[in-house]
Amino acid sequence: MKILILNGPNLNLQGHRDTDIYGTQTFEEYLKVLRSRYPQDEIDLMQSNVEGELINALHASVGVYDGVVMNAGGYTHTSVAIRDAIAAISTPVVEVHISSILAREEFRHISMLAPVCRGSIMGFGLDSYRLGIEALKK
User: Fold this and answer.
1) Which CATH class is domain 2-137?
2) Which of the residues 22, 30, 75, 129 is marked catalytic?
3) Residue 39: Cβ within 10 Å count
4) What pLDDT does residue 103 have?
5) With a threshold of 0.90, does the pTM exceed it?
6) pLDDT tens for each residue of 79-109
7) What does the domain layout of the chain look like in residue ranges?
8) Annotated catalytic residue 109
9) Catalytic residue at 97?
């Protein structure tokens, strides 16, 4: 399988930002773990703090990737545009979150993306990404 991990705003700070919530492992370190766990698969990573770049990556995934594991960060709760992009493409998208958005501030409880994703996984730390890959592989 060819999988795109698509990370949104502030996820470039993984391992350094709010470590009590998100942990101390950087995403680059965790990506090595994922790639070694799934050597038969190609796992690419794209991160952007810019909404339009995330939308462009979703559009570009069609015909290139078998699936997208997406953590849209704060855009999860606000972006109709990302929701529309997911709904418009044939590439399956699994929404993931490192923390449980339902255990956080009330404004984080609503995901604009969940209704148009194949599924949502949250609250398992960085392992949420592995679970997202497993969901795409089934």
Assistant:
1) alpha beta
2) 22
3) 8
4) 62
5) yes
6) 999 999 999 999 999 999 998 776 677 877 7
7) 2-137
8) no
9) yes
